[in-house]
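Quick one: structure for this chain?
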Amino acid sequence: MLVINLSFLVLWLGLIVAIALVTFDFILTRYSIAPPTANQFSAFVLFFTCWATWLYQELYQFFESKVGPYIDNSSAPYDQESTELIEHQQDSATSSSVSESGCCGVVKSDVPQYMFKCLPDLSNFISLSYLRSLSEFSAIMTLVYLTDRTDLLRTGEKIQSMDVFWFVYACIVVSSLCSMRTSHTAPDIASNKLGSTGILQREQTEEWKGWMQVLFLLYHYFVATEIYNAIRLFIAAYIWMTGFGNFSYYYIRQNFGISRFCQMMWRLNFLVIVCCVVLNNDYMCYYICPLHTLWTLLIYVSLGIKPQINKSFFGISFKFVFLFALVLVVWDVAGVWDAVFGPFHAILKYKNPHTQSDDDMQEWRFRSRLDRFVWIFGMLCAYNFPNIENVTRWVERGSAMFVFVVKSVVVVLLAVAWYFYYTSIYTLPKKEYNAVHPYTSFIPITIYIIARNLTPTLRSYHGHLFEWLGKITLETYILQYHVWLKTEHPNYQPKKTLVLFENHPLVNFMFCSLTYIFLSHRIFHLTNKIKELVIPQEDSKVAGSLLKSALIVTTVFLCGWGLHALHHVQ
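Got it. Here's what it folds into:
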């Protein structure tokens, strides 16, 4: 019976995958810009297998709900009373079916019920909700390929207009202001007391990421080169949050388990790895992901080694000094950087087709060097966060005049600091600014944090629209290149926009943006759902689960490579 079950399932999967591959091959033959590689072909085989498995289980559960599960009583001990009761129930339930069948002893409902004896129920191995998530994710990634690497949809030129750029951003800011909400952990304004996390609460940091991400995306769409230096600061702020958030978690919870670590790596790299395979891009094409991965690894390792000394002032101070010295040696001592990252050339290489440079590690050298200190500054802020909260609480418990004087002095100092930073550093040309950025990016970050948290009222509210967008920054960063803009070829930067409405650039911008944001939102939830399937909460089960997932993916990819080779020979 097991052989029959497996044979039927394999035949079903093979049939659905074959139909999908034939259809997909027809589309690629007509519209593909370049033929898919073996890895790309194998990825689609994996996607189609997910669809076939999901469709099978949907049909199985649908028919099972109609006729009920099959119960085999052939091997059960004989019980005359129970047998008579079952026979009476079956006679009552199927009397109409017997009369319609026209054949004595044959009941229509018995046929599909008996068929379940030959059909395996996959719910014992994977739930239907996970199959739905895998299938939807596969569908979106297939759509990503079709929109970016085929001629199914037209392309257009980017809108190079700073007026439109600022108008669109102003509209989004107004929308976010209209969506203002009270933060869940907001301080009590009436009593003038801070809440448990009054400064830099979660909603506020998500809002911060959101408004920066909107500017970052519009910068690409409208070619707003005038704000290049601001974009560099936004990326520094993201990396500051990596240092701040990861240090806070590991320092407070002391959870260095493999499950938590794998979940973090999954969040940073799952989507980007899938995109690299599906689109045949290098990992460094999405440079934000390797940057955050590197700094997260360093924080995890530095705090995870001898974690018992993290609570000691001298112990944690030693770790801070060591990290700072490590960065100085690796990035500022000749030859050390090449020795450290040379073995990872296959992962970190990137050849920009638009440049003539032969150094395929130049992109990683440039990106990693720009923000090599700011993550340590984020860790320092997290370590001193309780002291900052205590000082803020002490000030705001004083008299109204005292609070007014202190905060007025703070405002003046912030204004002076921003003036000197803006006039002497921010307005520098691109190359000159990049040279001083690693040593000065902490200044505007500090100014923003203090200004944003200056009063209890400012801490009490956040723009919900920006907060919502801040939760999907990774997805919007990656998908912008493929379902909003268009690269067309491996490792190319997006020079074109996707066109749904020709000759109506702003209408096209609106509809493409809505679709792009929707897909990013869905991918965010789907990657988290699939993470639950692959990475269990218990540390003891992580290795087994990852090995099982790797074996399944490897098996499907081997089949895909074989099919691709046969197709290539033909």
